[in-house]
Amino acid sequence: MRLLLVEDEKALAARLERVLTEAGYAVDLSHDGHDALHRGEVDDFDAIVLDLGLPGLDGLTVLRRWRAAGRRMPVLILTARDQWHEKVAGIDAGADDYLAKPFHVEELLARLRALIRRSGGHASPLLSCGPLQLDTVSGRVSVEGMPVTLTSHEFKVLAYLMHHPGRIVSRAELTEHIYAQDFDRDSNTIEVFIGRLRRKIPAALIETVRGLGYRLGEGAPAP
């Protein structure tokens, strides 16, 4: 899952980037409102953590412009402004959640997991597809109750597919959502990760839709 972290306080941004990366997210950083506005308009993110007190363009204006442009990604406002009317203004501008500083990183991670789940139509933190289960809280994957060991990139690919079951996902989309912008991306590696996943989970669960991409489904035919 790919996140945009918009925070002008460099030390906090670096700390949060480290925490989010360790939690398995691909993280893009932005430190001012104009850059954040542009990134949110042209790139697809699974969620955005947005500070309000930004240089150049304040966070509420950025958020309003995203929503006016039809951008629907989940947005979590993260700010030192904790007055109730400011929270209302953030929610009315289109925010999906609000977390005031100071905060515990565990709460931030829990709120992000919930936002991403809900945006995909999932109420439970446990994602299932036939005998396959992925626990979004613990990061554990199992098949018929037996644990499956995955590399970080294998997990990211599988998690994205499990958040979008039954939908065709292209290699380009997977590449876009498992790597941050400054990462040396190669969509050909997606085939490698898919191949490895098929050796660790029931291969028929991941269907190759020729010329289009991959689809996760229960009992899809093997390629």
Brief overview, please?
With 223 residues, this protein is an alpha/beta fold. Helix content is 40%, strand content 20%.
Describe the model.
- It is built from eight helices and eleven strands.
- It is an alpha/beta fold.
- It folds into two domains: 2-119, Response regulator (Rossmann fold); 126-216, Winged helix-like DNA-binding domain superfamily/Winged helix DNA-binding domain (Arc Repressor Mutant, subunit A), CATH 1.10.10.
- α6 (152-163) crosses α8 (188-200).
- The mean pLDDT is 90.
How are the SSEs ordered, and which strands pair?
Blueprint: E1 2-6, H1 10-22, E2 26-30, H2 33-42, E3 47-50, H3 59-68, E4 75-79, H4 84-92, E5 97-100, H5 105-119, E6 126-129, E7 132-135, E8 141-143, E9 146-148, H6 152-163, H7 171-178, H8 188-200, E10 206-209, E11 213-216
Parallel strand pairs: 1-2, 1-3, 3-4, 4-5
Antiparallel strand pairs: 6-7, 7-8, 8-9, 10-11
Helix pairs in contact: 2-3, 6-8
**Sequence stretches where pLDDT stays below 50 over 5 or more residues:** none
Structural class: alpha/beta
Number of strand elements: 11
CATH architectural label of the largest domain: 3-Layer(aba) Sandwich
Keywords: DNA-binding, Phosphoprotein
Protein name: Two-component system OmpR family response regulator
Pfam families: Response_reg, Trans_reg_C
Domain OmpR/PhoB-type: 124-218
